């Protein structure tokens, strides 16, 4: 898994590429918290190039979201497709978070 | 009747996850499971193997037996790709695990508890048996998926 952090005027875009399995998932929470601790209040997570996610990835996202809520940081998602979208829907995370069709919409939502 | 499968006997250790998923994904390709299924198959084997690693109470160096096959299941009309995991841990029937609450908000939702639920949702057929002091869990996927030619 590779995470690219793109700081923008309206927030930070985290582009997550590759696979979020039990081995790689903790890196997402670590990177997300690092962005949040830098004072960011809006984070858009771009999953368009994420090919695989397991329950470990969902745990990492949920743990990050809980910390974000406490810190007053909003977390939006963009680019869910294929297996990743299905896992989000089946697990209920798809309805728990704001999932946008475009990056612009995600930052504007 | 099933197409003969290869077996992997491997120590129930987190560090062996990559070898386990590589084995199952290779078998899925060799047995011509549709590409659409590969990530679901990988998800199922990751969840099942790590559930054994983390919760079965197996002693260190205990082995899990994993096999893959292409077979008819029950009265189904088509072949299925099936993964079977056998461990000698404490009895655990994943099919009896309570369904997690999916409607809760971020604050109330517990972290975790989704692995087995995902397995049951992603596979087309699951079965469990306790035989000879072993848990045997199988997850099967229809080879012909809607909208996808084999």
Q: Which keywords apply here?
A:
heterodimer, A: 109 residues, alpha/beta, Transcription Regulator spoIIAA, 6-stranded mixed sheet, 46% helix, B: 150 residues, alpha+beta, Heat Shock Protein 90, 5-stranded antiparallel sheet, 3 helices, 5 strands, globular
Describe the structure concisely.
The complex is a heterodimer of chains A (109) and B (150). Chain A is α/β, with parallel strands linked by helices and 109 residues long.
The most extensive interface between chains reads:
A-B, 25 and 26 residues
The run of helices and strands of chain B is EHHEEHEE
The description of the largest β-sheet of chain A is: 6 strands, mixed
Poorly predicted sequence stretches spanning 5 or more consecutive residues of chain A: none
* CATH architectural group of chain A: 2-Layer Sandwich
Number of E strands of chain B: 5
Oligomer: heterodimer
Structure overview:
- The complex is a heterodimer of chains A (109) and B (150).
- Chain A has five helices and six strands, in the order E-E-H-E-E-H-E-H-H-E-H.
- Chain A is α/β, with parallel strands linked by helices.
- In chain A, strand 1 (2-8) and strand 2 form a beta hairpin.
- The model of chain A has no long low-confidence stretch (mean pLDDT 94).
- By secondary structure, chain B is of the alpha+beta class.
- Chain B has a single domain (7-142), classed as Histidine kinase-like ATPase, C-terminal domain (Heat Shock Protein 90).
- Chain B is built from three helices and five strands; from the N terminus they run βααββαββ.
- Chain B has helices at residues 17-30, 38-55, 115-122; strands spanning 7-11, 63-72, 79-87, 125-131, 134-142.
- Chain B has a five-stranded antiparallel β-sheet with strand order 1-2-3-5-4, covered by helices on one side.
- In chain B, strand 2 (63-72) and strand 3 form a beta hairpin.
- Classes of the chains: A alpha/beta (109), B alpha+beta (150).
- At the A-B interface, strand 4, helix 2 and helix 3 of A face helix 1, helix 2 and helix 3 of B.
